[in-house]
Description:
alpha+beta, 1 helix, 18% strand, rod-shaped, disordered N terminus
Amino acid sequence: MRRIQCKNFSTIKKKKKKxxxxxxxxxxxxxxxxxxxxxxxxxxxxxAWIAKKLNEIQEKxxxxxxxxxxxxxxxxxxxxxxxxxxxxxxxxKNSLVEFPNTIxxxxxxxx
Length: 111
């Protein structure tokens, strides 16, 4: 068995295997899956490892995008609620400002 040193300094044991490419039937936009077979070259094994890591990264990015999109939508909904509450508070404030004037007018009418 041979070992190669990767950029992230982790050691990967390499076995002599040949690689074949298989595309997922339900998702043609994703990267092809690479399945190791016997008698593969070092270059094929490296390509398989890189493809596997790229697929993992792609899945993580998709999941993060979905989560972030949900959070952004929730924040937008909360902002809309706050805007409505602010409008209602301003209406109440205006009513309270008018209230003393109304009371004073009523008192004047009674006199």
